[in-house]
Structure formats: structure tokens, C-alpha cells
Design brief:
Protein name (chain A): DUF3325 domain-containing protein
Largest sheet of chain A: none
Shape of chain A: elongated
Number of strands of chain A: 0
Shape of chain B: globular
Transmembrane segments (chain A): 38-55, 62-82, 88-107
Strand content of chain A: under 5%
Number of strands of chain B: 7
Helix content of chain A: over 70%
Number of domains of chain B: 2
Order of helices and strands of chain B: HHHEEEHHHHHHHHEEEEHHHHHHH
Keywords (chain A): Membrane, Transmembrane, Transmembrane helix
Strand order of the largest sheet of chain B: 3-2-1-4-5-6-7
Order of helices and strands of chain A: HHHHH
Structural class of chain A: mainly alpha
Oligomer: heterodimer
Number of domains of chain A: 1
InterPro entries (chain A): DUF3325 (IPR021762)
Number of helices of chain B: 18
Distance between the termini of chain B: 53 Å
Radius of gyration of chain A: 14 Å
Helix content of chain B: 55-70%
Number of helices of chain A: 5
Chain lengths: 108, 529
């Protein structure tokens, strides 16, 4: 479940950065077309990976419930952090990305 | 045409949300608390010791106890301890005096390791929140009907809310705090959209549950996962042999658990019921615990001959329609959730509660703006304000009072469990009176501050009145008790923050207002000249 949570959080952050307004708030400046596309792709890929992470360790029923739970909570955490601690929100996304291989390794 | 439709939906969302918002807030909050029903029970009856689980040993102890105390009962029901509910529960039903009558039930809770009968303070525990969230403390069946209607309205409010909210994807990550009315709306939208899967699941599943529950609801409330026991009572001839009126010793039941597990490929037993113990035709029904699968199986059980221990019947795979209903039931209840997932359930439940609360605040805030200049609020807005305060801050305070009553009421008090509930409703009633008497913002601040103090002081009160304080529970690793205390502390801190925010917002509003008020007489004078 930890791996799914990390991937979800990173994925949502990427999708958030793909939106010009949030990109401007968080990193400054509007993203280029290519960068936007890359972020959208990465975001959806990470969300897809998190579904795989949630389902592969358990059966489909429990895995799907876990996935929806981390999906909702990670998005909620991101949206709450963004206005108050934007740097922390970004840093957490970085940590999630870096930490996910470790979590994947620990899972096996 | 399209705008007209959206406006109609906005109207529907506004008024359905307002009329049922107060009730839905209470249903969502108590329902969320019910996710920790067993943990709350444990805190409210801390005399039940948490022991290492051993189903076979506990069942043997229960069998000994019942053979000594209820040898002539017509039925025994044994609830085995699990990781969340440490007590060994035994119930028995006396043989009916006359045919057609129901024999009386007696319930006891035993120590799962020694089999000794436990002396407990009487309390409904977390069961109160669970019952309240669908029965609303009303006589059967009115509470169930009202909460079903509320669930229907919730569903309508969700759908109309999605339609009203134009920019779901554009505003997906948007929350702009410190902007007054704008922030409340952002928060309402974010809580609604981000947690939408939960909202839809919980609302739709409650309708599915009530589909079969509006009439036979008492089955689930009084038998828990052991629905089979109810059907056995209604149709005793269907799978339980008739009493032979011939004495025969009941075989030791512990080995039956292993046989039942073989049938379930690893599933654990939750309940064991024995029909006609001591009779030659005694039967033992071992029911599966619902805590290892999402899809709830209404009555997965294995029936044994009580004397020989042979398998008489095993309930077949449930049909698809039942499995779908069972899936929604399982998702709603979350019996299968481990500690982490249970916390996530709790968090998204709170998010749902907060979504309803923010909606109520927005309704009033929008309309109050029009009357901000005059300072006089029309009656209907004042009514909404009072109901907002009492239904939110007042309810939270009443929950704290319920816990306080559990620790302060004398153990020997007659009808103690009822008095805990009375304390809850008296506190809630007083919050209405208080909200009527005090101006809006002051009432909010005072009630939030009081609730904060009550919650934050609960761990201290617990330490003063019981030997199960944080110093002990943390070291022993009793996470249910320690977690309860710590959660109360965190709730206290959160409410303090909320009260402080409310107070500060009021202070800045006053500061802004003063210059305008002093400026007005001047302009008037100028106009007069």
C-alpha cells in the first residue's frame, strides 16, 4: 500500500504541474508544450503504476479498495499542502519518486 | 437550455443540501466514528483485557462456561475474540416457556484467556454511534426511513453538485485559503471532487443495504455477521435437526473450527452457535468472520452434528446478486480493513463530513453578505445559523460529553448505558440553547473551545479514573486504547485551532468595520449641510 501511495502522490503532483496555473505558482513561469505533455504522460503513467502496485500484492477486490483509498488521500494531501507549504508538497513528490523503488524492493 | 438545466441543478443542490445537511452531517460524523466501533468499545469498557488470540482455547472456555451456567438453554451463541474485539462473548436463549414464544436472551463477556466472567461498566460504547447513524435514536422503523431518505437526498445532492460544479478538472487541485467565501467554496469543491469515489460508494451502498434492511434491519444490528443465526430462528426446520429429547453429551467444539477452516480455504470463524446443546440432535453452526474479504457473505457457515462432529451442511457459494449486494455491504462497513486502510476510511469519512459542513457554511455565508451592512439578520437566516452551530460544533461537543459520561458516571448506576446516551443528547440540546442565546460568531467560538477542552482533557480524565492511561497503554502496546487517547488529544488540538481561526477572523472583521462606521457620520453630516 505504501508503494501505491508514493506513486499516486507523485503522479498527482505531475498532473498538477502540467496545468499552467499551478506550474506558475510552484515553479514559476508557464510550462512549454512539450513539458506539459511529458508531465501529463508521466502523471497518468504513475497513477497506472500505482494501480498495478496496489493490485499485484493482494487480490483484485482488496487491491482496488486500497488503490481508491490512496488515490483519494494522496490527492487530498497534495491539495491541502499546495497553498500552505508548496515547497514541502514538491519535495514530498521528489521523495515519493525516489522512495518508490525502495518500497517496491521492500514489498518483494 | 443548458444553462437553465445547470441553474435548476444548482437550485436543487442548494435546497436539498440545506434541508438535509444538518442531519447528513450527524449521520456522516457518527458513521465515520463507527469505523472505530470496536476500538471505541474497548476504550469504553477497558476492563476487557486484550489477549493473544487462540480461537480453539477460547471456544473451549466458552463451552465450559455455558455447560456450567446454561446447560438447559435452547441455543448458545459464542462470539470469538478477534484482533479488534478482545472479549469472548457468550449469549444464550432459554427454552421458551410456551411454544411460539421467544425464550429470553442472556449475554456475558468472558476473559478470552481465563474464561472468567468480566465485571464491566455498562455502556453502549461505539455501538451507539453505529446505531445512531442509521436509526437516529428514533423508534423503529422511523429512524431507518429517515436515514434512508437522507441517503437518497445525499445521492441527489452529489449528482446535482457534480453538474453544478462546472470546472471539475480545471479546478481539480485548486484550494485558495484566506479568501473568505471563495475559500469555503474551494474547500467544498475539493472535498467533494477528490473524495468523490467514497461519497458515491458510501451513499449508493447505504441505499443497497437499506434495500434489504428497511424491514429486517434488526437482523444485522443484533446478530452482526451471524445473519445465519437469524434465519435459523425463522426457519429452524430448514437446516437444523429437531430436538430429539434424548440427552447426549456435546462433543468438544474446538476441533470443529479446523474443519470449518478447511471449507473456507483459510477464512476464520467469527461466531459459533449451538442449537439444543445436551440433546442427541444438537447442532453446531460455525459462521465465518467477514474480516478477510471485501465481499460480505450473508451467512457463510458450516453446520456440524453436535454429538458426532460430522459435517451436516455447508452453505454454498452465494449467488451473484447476493454477492453484488454483499460487495456493497462489505465496502460500506469496511470490516475487512486493516489498521492502515481503516484510518484511510476514517479520514475520507471525515472529509465527507467536512464537505457537508462547508456546504452549510457557504449557504449561510452567501446570504449573510446581503445583510452585513444593516447588521440585522432576518429570522430564517438566524435559524439556519443556530442550526449550523448546534449541528456541527454542538454535536462534536456532545460526542466528547458522551465519552466523559463513560468515565464519570458511577459503575453501580442503574441504567448506566442509557445515562451515557442521555448525557450526549442533553449536551446537544444545551448547545442549541446556547446558540440561540449567544451571537453567531461568539457561539461558534465558545462551543468549539469547549469541545476542544473536553477532547484534549479526555486522556487526563482517563488517567485519573482508570488504570489504563497512556503511560500504561503505550508501554503495553495496546494501540486501541492508546490510539483512542491520542486521537482525542489530536481532536482537541484541531478544535482549538478552529476556535482560534474563528476568533481571529472575527477580530480582523471588526478592525475592517470600525473605520467605515466612524466614516459614515461624517458623510451624513456633509449631506446634511
Amino acid at each position: 500500500m505504501l508503494l501505491a501511495l508514493l506513486l499516486c502522490y507523485a503522479g498527482f503532483t505531475a498532473l498538477c504541474l502540467a496545468m499552467p496555473r499551478h506550474h506558475d505558482e510552484l515553479l514559476g513561469g508557464k510550462p512549454s508544450r512539450r513539458r506539459r505533455r511529458g508531465l501529463v504522460l508521466a502523471g497518468w503513467l504513475l497513477l497506472g503504476l500505482s494501480l498495478w502496485a496496489a493490485v499485484s500484492s493482494k487480490d483484485w477486490g482488496l487491491g482496488l479498495v486500497d488503490w481508491f483509498a490512496v488515490l483519494m488521500v494522496s490527492a487530498l494531501a497534495l491539495v491541502l499542502l499546495l497553498p500552505y507549504r508548496p515547497r514541502l508538497a514538491l519535495a514530498l513528490a521528489g521523495v515519493s519518486l525516489l522512495g518508490s523503488p525502495v518500497a517496491a524492493w521492500a514489498m518483494n | 437550455m443548458k444553462e437553465g438545466f445547470r441553474q435548476a441543478m444548482a437550485w436543487l443542490h442548494t435546497w436539498a443540501g440545506l434541508l438535509f445537511g444538518w442531519l447528513l452531517f450527524a449521520i456522516f460524523l457518527t458513521g465515520t466514528l463507527a469505523y472505530f466501533k470496536d476500538e471505541t468499545n474497548h476504550w469504553m469498557q477497558p476492563e476487557i483485557p486484550a489477549r493473544a488470540l487462540n480461537a480453539e482455547a477460547s471456544l473451549t472456555l466458552a463451552q465450559h462456561y455455558l455447560q456450567q451456567h446454561a446447560p438447559d438453554a435452547s441455543r448458545w451463541i459464542i462470539g470469538l475474540p478477534d484482533a479488534r474485539d478482545p472479549g469472548l462473548k457468550v449469549r444464550w436463549q432459554q427454552s421458551a416457556a410456551k411454544p411460539g414464544e421467544r425464550g429470553q436472551f442472556t449475554s456475558k463477556i468472558l476473559d478470552a484467556q481465563t474464561g472468567a466472567e468480566l465485571q464491566l461498566r455498562e455502556s453502549m460504547g461505539g455501538e451507539f454511534f453505529y446505531r445512531f447513524h442509521f436509526q437516529l435514536q428514533m423508534p423503529y422503523p422511523w429512524g431507518r426511513w429517515l436515514s434512508t431518505i437522507a441517503a437518497m437526498v445525499m445521492f441527489v445532492a452529489l449528482i446535482s453538485g457534480i453538474i453544478t460544479h462546472k470546472k471539475i478538472f480545471k479546478d481539480f487541485f485548486t484550494f485558495r485559503p484566506r479568501k473568505g467565501q471563495r475559500s469555503w467554496l474551494d474547500g467544498h469543491n475539493a472535498l467533494g471532487v477528490l473524495v468523490l469515489p467514497f461519497h458515491l460508494m458510501i451513499t449508493y451502498s447505504s441505499l443497497v443495504i437499506f434495500m434489504s434492511m428497511v424491514m429486517p434491519a434488526s437482523i444485522l444490528a443484533s446478530y452482526g455477521t451471524n445473519v445465519r443465526a437469524f434465519y435459523d430462528e425463522v426457519f429452524p426446520a430448514s437446516n437444523v435437526p429437531e430436538k430429539a429429547n434424548q440427552a447426549a453429551a456435546l462433543a468438544p467444539m474446538a476441533p470443529l473450527l479446523g474443519k470449518a477452516r478447511e471449507q473456507w480455504s483459510g477464512g476464520e470463524a467469527g461466531w459459533v452457535s449451538v442449537n439444543n446443546p445436551g440433546d442427541a440432535n444438537a447442532s453446531v453452526v460455525v459462521s465465518r468472520s467477514g474480516s478477510d474479504r471485501v465481499v460480505h457473505d450473508f451467512g457463510s457457515a458450516v453446520t456440524f452434528n453436535g454429538v458426532s462432529g460430522q459435517i451436516l451442511a455447508a452453505s454454498p457459494q452465494q449467488p451473484l446478486a447476493m454477492a453484488i449486494a454483499g460487495g456493497f455491504y462489505g465496502l460500506h462497513m469496511g470490516h475487512f480493513a486493516g489498521p492502515v486502510l481503516r484510518w484511510l476510511y476514517f479520514i475520507v469519512g471525515l472529509a465527507g463530513t467536512a464537505m457537508i459542513g462547508t456546504g452549510l457554511v457557504i449557504w449561510l455565508g452567501k446570504r449573510q453578505l446581503k445583510h452585513a451592512r444593516s447588521g440585522v439578520m432576518p429570522f430564517e437566516l438566524r435559524l439556519v445559523e443556530v442550526l449550523n452551530i448546534a449541528s456541527m460544533a454542538g454535536l462534536v461537543g456532545a460526542v466528547a460529553v458522551f465519552f466523559w459520561a463513560n468515565r464519570l458516571l458511577p459503575v453501580s448506576l442503574a441504567g448506566r448505558a442509557d445515562w451515557e446516551i442521555n448525557a450526549f443528547f442533553m449536551a446537544w440540546g444545551l448547545s442549541v440553547v446556547h446558540a440561540v442565546l449567544r451571537p453567531g460568531r461568539k457561539a461558534w467560538i465558545e462551543q468549539l473551545a469547549l469541545a476542544a477542552a473536553l477532547f484534549a482533557a479526555l486522556p487526563v480524565l482517563n488517567g485519573l479514573t482508570t488504570p489504563y492511561h497512556l503511560g500504561v497503554t503505550l508501554i503495553q502496546g495496546d494501540w486501541a486504547l492508546a490510539g483512542f487517547d491520542l486521537t482525542c488529544l489530536a481532536t482537541g488540538l484541531f478544535l482549538t485551532w478552529a476556535a482560534w481561526k474563528m476568533w481571529r477572523a472575527g477580530a480582523t472583521a471588526r478592525l475592517k468595520k470600525t473605520p467605515r462606521e466612524t466614516a459614515r457620520p461624517i458623510t451624513l453630516e456633509q449631506g446634511a449641510n
